[in-house]
Write a structure and sequence with these properties.
Layout (H helix, E strand, L loop, with lengths): L5 H48 L20 H6 L15
Membrane topology: Single-pass membrane protein
GO biological process, one term: protein transport by the Tat complex
Subunit structure: Forms a complex with TatC.
Length: 94
């Protein structure tokens, strides 16, 4: 976004003077100032309201612990059947 320098500001003020005239321009400036003041008051009131009603958040949140795999006990090992191993295949005599 380009910066607005004094030359650009002067052009904008000159255009506003031509469009609205010298009598209406002070009234428009006053209305604009009052509108900005009301906007700031309402946004500040909203910020204050949110700060009062919002509960305090903890500074650091604790990450949930990873779920550990259940420990295998000797009873559990005895209850399960032993895995079947394939027998070694011997080549047939020729």
């Amino acid at each position: 976004m380009p910066n607005i320098g004094p030359a650009e500001l002067l052009v904008v003020l000159l255009v506003a003077l031509v469009v609205f005239g010298p009598r209406k321009l002070p009234e428009l400036g006053k209305s604009l100032g009052n509108g900005l003041r009301e906007f700031r008051k309402s946004t500040q009131g909203l910020r204050d309201e949110l700060n009062v009603t919002a509960p305090a958040q903890p500074a650091a949140t604790v990450a949930p612990a990873a779920v550990a795999a259940p420990a295998v006990t000797a009873q559990a090992m005895a209850a399960q059947p032993a895995p079947v191993q394939a027998a070694a295949v011997q080549p047939a005599p020729a």
